[in-house]
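Write out this protein's structure.
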Amino acid sequence: MANAEFYGLALVLGGGEVTMEELAKLYAMLANRGSLQSLRRRADEPRAPGARMLSDEASFMVLDMLRQNPRPDDTLISQPSSLPVYWKTGTSWGFRDAWTAGIVGPYVLVVWVGNFDGSGNPAFVGVETAAPLFFHVVDALRARDAEEFEARRNLSGQRRFAERVVPAARHDLVYPGQVADPRQQCASARGGRYGDGAGGVPAV
């Protein structure tokens, strides 16, 4: 990517270019509780130390938002045996690229639809073109690894973290170090208290 001045305000709206590998690394970072690591192309490659990009709490919040995104065909999403999918679509300027990226079980999955010469096509809309392909792969993985996915869904560590961070009687998120009163939350935020950095939950 070029420097921020090159993109201007469009950068915050997704105006910066990104490769499929870079996008996969960012979603893997969320799955790794905010730790950004190099991708390994072989299982026997050594693991490089990661760089902390987000806190456990911030990673959890982003994943929770991605999890609530309904899939286009709205099938399987309400079945209790299904492992959550954390996913998002994207459409580039001029309909040059249709993207869908996400996390399902132990996998990070990225789908790109476009022309190799960079020409646009009105059909290249992320939710309409890339998302169906993404969920075809998701469903195939769920069918192939059904037992493993069910075991991951029932991990007790995830349940304990969710109960600690998101009280069952509330629908808003109250993190360690914060208070429930919105007026006190504003004062707490001004003081920079967004959590104690403890705990955390993997995406899988």
